[in-house]
Amino acid sequence: MRTLIFFLLTLCFVTDAQCQDASTKGDNAELAQMYKEDQADRTPGTLIDFEKMAERDREREARVYEMLDQGLVKTSNDYANAAMIFQHGNDTVASGMAVKMMYKAVELDSTRSKWLLAAAIDRDLMYRNKPQIYGTQYRRMEGGKWELYKIDKNAVTDAERRAYNVPSLEETNVRLKRMNSKQIMELYDS
Description:
The protein is mainly alpha-helical. The protein is about 65% helix and about 5% strand. It contains nine helices and two strands. The protein has helices at about 1-25, 30-40, 50-70, 75-85, 90-110, 115-125, 160-165, 170-180, 185-190; strands spanning about 140, 145-150. A two-stranded antiparallel ribbon has the order 1-2. A hairpin with a 5-residue loop joins β1 (about 140) and β2 (about 145-150). α5 (about 90-110) runs antiparallel to α6 (about 115-125).
């Protein structure tokens, strides 16, 4: 009996590992690496050279366009990685591409989190000087305080926000207050 249980457990682990390999097998390795580099450029707590980061963002964006032209962006993961790279662009062309790439990622894998799609839509609207609809975009004001970028509160419901893995507007406002509250250690320094 122990042998049978051991065999079944081993089979489960092997099958699970094979399924995980199959889910990423067709992914573009170069694009996955570019995504990792994009995220590494934005690691919290590190000193960020914004000029160098912007240059690397432009290089990654140009390479993604080449990959798209060559038909090298194929899987849901590929499209999501491309979306994140375009999400960090600085114009409406890039923000529009982020939306298109994320729509395709979700279309290819309906189980994928839709948060990045909501964030891409909001950022694209922000770059077009229109109110966001999901409530994912913040900006820092003079003096260091954060504010939620202007939002059309009636464009989508909180239920629709939840479907896109976005907090309700009430939860977003609580988060904003936390972002702007003094940290305990700051109070001791006063």
